[in-house]
């Protein structure tokens, strides 16, 4: 009897041990699954930030060939195509994201952005119109402002630009866009103010510096603005002011500014030389 009880105990121990092994294996598998998810998530982030854009495109295409319904891979491909400046392909990729059951408002904004990059303003506006007004992000309002600009809906554009500026700590690019909008409307003083403000947030933004000089030249103010600039930038901005002066009919001032641009540039400044030669040839003729 004692022998039978002993055998039962041993059997129970073996059984429990086997159950324990199975439970342990399940835990290990779950643990490995978690690690894989974390690694995959990190890899996606790396591909969308620091990786070469075209390598990222290949990575997400390979991932989609194995799991074509994964919305995160679809998004990754679309975003990588934008980073690679393959905008037409990006539009097609975003269409797939939009058709996915897990689509969200961020996706619709990104799709609108891709459409704008390909010049399809009508479809971009249609896409933005599908997003509820309660969804308020910097990117959404920046795009809304650009669409309103394209439609010459100036009051709406100003309202959207103002909202966008209030939703970011880095408003330089949107202030530059807003300033350019004012420039195209002929509101040169306000454009100058907005470009100057953009530069205070990002003094490396050359587009804003160049636009600032365009706004000043339109007001017949040909003095270089007091802003941070390299020697090369100084030459380029003098070139812009010179062309602006010629456009205003102040030819002598324009020639002087173009000569100064040529003299200022540390290398040969071909664009300024061509402008000066063309101007002098016209004056001679």
UniProtKB/TrEMBL annotation:
Alphabetized InterPro entries for the sequence: TPR-like_helical_dom_sf, TPR_rpt
SUPFAM superfamilies: TPR-like (SSF48452)
Superkingdom classification of source: Bacteria
One Pfam family recorded for the sequence: TPR_19
Protein name: Tetratricopeptide repeat protein
Species for this entry: Psychromarinibacter sediminicola
């Amino acid at each position: 009897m004692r022998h039978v009880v002993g055998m039962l105990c041993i059997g129970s121990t073996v059984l429990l041990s086997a159950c324990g092994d199975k439970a342990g294996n399940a835990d290990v598998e779950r643990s490995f699954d978690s690690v894989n998810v974390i690694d995959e998530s990190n890899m996606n982030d790396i591909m969308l930030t620091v990786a070469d854009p075209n390598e990222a495109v290949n990575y997400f295409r390979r991932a989609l060939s194995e799991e074509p319904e994964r919305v995160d891979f679809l998004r990754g491909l679309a975003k990588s195509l934008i980073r690679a400046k393959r905008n037409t392909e990006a539009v097609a990729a975003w269409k797939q994201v939009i058709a996915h059951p897990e689509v969200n408002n961020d996706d619709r904004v990104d799709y609108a952005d891709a459409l704008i990059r390909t010049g399809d303003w009508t479809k971009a506006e249609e896409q933005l119109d599908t997003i509820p007004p309660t969804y308020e992000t910097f990117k959404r309002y920046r795009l809304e402002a650009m669409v309103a600009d394209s439609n010459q809906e100036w009051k709406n554009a100003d309202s959207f630009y103002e909202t966008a500026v209030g939703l970011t700590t880095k408003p330089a690019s949107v202030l530059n866009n807003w300033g350019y909008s004012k420039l195209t409307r002929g509101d040169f003083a306000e454009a100058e103010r907005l470009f100057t403000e953009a530069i205070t947030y990002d003094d490396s933004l050359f587009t804003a510096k160049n636009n600032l000089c365009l706004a000043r030249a339109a007001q017949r103010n040909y003095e270089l603005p007091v802003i941070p600039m390299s020697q090369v930038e100084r030459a380029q901005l003098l070139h812009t002011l010179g062309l602006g002066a010629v456009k205003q009919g102040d030819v002598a001032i324009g020639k002087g500014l173009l000569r100064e641009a040529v003299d200022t540039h540390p290398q040969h400044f071909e664009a300024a030389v061509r402008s000066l030669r063309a101007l002098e040839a016209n004056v001679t003729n």
